[in-house]
Amino acid sequence: MKHISASDIEKMEKIFRLNLINSCTGFKSANLIATKSKSGNPNVAVFSSVTHMGSNPAMLGFVTRPLSVSRNTYKNIKETSYFTVNHIHEKMIEQAHQTAAKYDEDISEFNKTGLTEEYLGDFHAPYVKQSEIRLGCRYLNEYEIKENDTLLVVAAIEHIYFDEGIQMPDGWLRLDDAGTVSINGLDGYSLPSLLDRFHYARPNQEVKSFFTREADL
Amino acid sequence: MKHISASDIEKMEKIFRLNLINSCTGFKSANLIATKSKSGNPNVAVFSSVTHMGSNPAMLGFVTRPLSVSRNTYKNIKETSYFTVNHIHEKMIEQAHQTAAKYDEDISEFNKTGLTEEYLGDFHAPYVKQSEIRLGCRYLNEYEIKENDTLLVVAAIEHIYFDEGIQMPDGWLRLDDAGTVSINGLDGYSLPSLLDRFHYARPNQEVKSFFTREADL
């Protein structure tokens, strides 16, 4: 096995380090965050840091740099409190990746990428029409990560839209039925397929699959 | 499309809500965090919240509840500052899931699940021998998420171990070559395969794949 130490990481060429460190923590979630400024400019950008924060209350978080390419996303959320999280699927990985280009602030990535904005109910922020799982979120708080000047934005999940066919009777959404992708590093898009789903683990009991049929017993 | 509102979420039965909210943010990273207490008890537990926090300095974060099943992980990290992050692969999803069972504090999940502890260099915390991508991490800080009493633990990545064959010349680790899995909700284990990898996006330029061969041009 190759071993890379802290001092190797420090001395690395910048892009090499970006690629290695972004891929070494495992697969990441693949989402488009969409917002609309107070003055009406929509914005959509790819994020790989959206993370489950808790179920009750339903919350998620994501990491951003206030002055990065995603600055419009952050500015619009601070102005309006609202944003949407939209899954990226196999059919739209090129369009999703293109949202990372540094467009001027008054240019909508929706126009430039072929992604379609859709407004649902009276929610301020646009959803991405091509997305099959969409969340309407409300800003709650932010935590400044002082070790590297990033921000963890924490939000409430207030609306969930999805095709009923991907939900199992116990509430679980089967994401490979929606064709949701995951991100490998900064720029790799992968399609997961379900291997197995297991029941709650208990000491001294074998792990039990959800898919073991009665007939097998 | 089915629409679920904030008040629907609040009124949901607890397990149904856990399944829905844990799966609606997309695929999650699949890692085993391993620690050893000051008195020498090893511990290993599955985590789906490990997230890239930055490349320079190389940092990751994960979310935990101080009093959850993962309390031993947190306690050991606070006592010793060190922990490892070990990718979960297709061949070990049952063992990884079993680490979530509520064993007594003095019982090592390594003994109970068949996962093997391995010590590398003079690093205090054990690595998981079955894991093909392993990170040695040092605690830096924690942020209390006051909206739901969870903690974001932030750590420096100080060691990286992997098989050289999965690294591309630009530093990127191809995770599907390692058979790394991703997690769907609380208990679904999925195997991603790479669809494509794209070059840096620029305004008014088409998205370019890394895999377009010269011969195709």
TrEMBL record, chains A, B:
Entries under SUPFAM superfamilies matching the protein: FMN-binding split barrel (SSF50475)
Pfam families the UniProt entry points to: Flavin_Reduct
Molecular-function GO terms, alphabetical: FMN binding; oxidoreductase activity, acting on the CH-NH group of donors, NAD or NADP as acceptor
Segments forming domain Flavin reductase like: 23-179
Gene3D superfamilies found in the cross-reference section: Electron Transport, Fmn-binding Protein, Chain A (2.30.110.10)
Keywords: Flavoprotein, FMN
Domain of life: Bacteria
Similarity comment text for this entry: Belongs to the flavoredoxin family.
Protein's name in the database: NADH-FMN oxidoreductase RutF, flavin reductase (DIM6/NTAB) family
Biological classification of the source: Bacteria, Pseudomonadati, Bacteroidota, Flavobacteriia, Flavobacteriales
